[in-house]
Amino acid sequence: MKILVVDDDREIVESIAIFLSGEGYETVKAYNGIDALEALSENEVHLMILDVMMPKLDGIKTLMKMRESRNIPVILLSAKSEDADKILGLTAGADDYVTKPFNPSELMARVKSQLRRYTTLGSIGKQNGVITVSGLCINTENRTVTVDGEDVRLTRIEYSILELLARNRGRVFSSDEIYRNVWNEDSVVGDNTIAVHIRHIREKIEINPKEPKYLKVVWGIGYKIV
User: For every one of its 226 residues, what pLDDT tens digit does the chain have, with 9 covering 90 and above?
Assistant: First the structure.
């Protein structure tokens, strides 16, 4: 597994790289957002550890740019611990958030957890136009959905929302982001409209909608497929 470590503090990069190497991971190093994007284009990276506050291109902008083409797990590092900063990072597409100073053992545990989820515990399979997340199967060619082999009938909007979330498994989408991606225009509706669609999707794909297996709400932030 290859992990990209990005921080303008070279000592932090070197320290993280040492711990990762000790766990058997290969590392790629970058010290600003621009170099990080270049490293991503030149390497097959499986996870990125990304500092928020950096010169040239900060971590949030780097993350948003990366998410245009890559769906690898991202762990943000930040000296800021306020909830607003965490929400901003998660909304931008981060999978996890670690506050500096951090315990290296905790960071390694989070790295392993994200890689395990991404590679072995239901990372999205995309073969022959099919997206699979555990028992949920989405055929993007004929726009059909099955759960544990049973057909699920969705409206056009419901299907589009589900496919968006499934293609970006683990990423949290706000109501506005869902609207922009599905309707292809700036949001002109309240959060409740999206919430209603989410509820209908849950009722159709979940065995117990009150304890969902696939479609999760991240309170105060948005929705994601896990």
Answer: 899 999 999 999 999 999 999 999 999 999 999 999 999 989 889 899 999 989 889 999 999 888 877 778 899 998 776 667 677 777 777 888 888 888 999 999 989 888 876 665 444 444 457 888 888 999 988 889 999 889 999 988 899 999 999 988 888 898 888 888 887 766 555 557 888 899 999 999 998 888 888 999 988 889 999 8
User: Please, what is the Cα angle at 87 between 82 and 92, to 5 degrees?
Assistant: 135
Helix 191-205 vs helix 175-183: crossing angle, to nearest 10? 80
Report long-range pairs for 60-67 (Cβ below 8 Å, ≥24 apart): 60/88, 60/89, 60/92, 61/33, 62/6, 62/33, 62/36, 62/37, 63/89, 63/92, 63/93, 63/94, 64/92, 64/93, 65/33, 65/37, 66/36, 66/37, 66/40, 66/93, 67/92, 67/93, 67/168, 67/171
Please give the Cα distance from 76 to 63 (Å, whole number): 9
End residue of a domain, out of 50, 85, 119: 119
Residues 166 and 79 in one domain: no
Tally of structural domains, the chain: 2
- Give the predicted TM-score (pTM) of the model: 0.57
Give the range of the structural domain holding residue 155, as residue numbers without chain letter.
125-225
Angle of CA points 122, 96, 170, to nearest 5°: 35
Instruction: State whether 109 and 147 are in the same domain.
Output: no
What's the token pair of residue 8?
């303008």
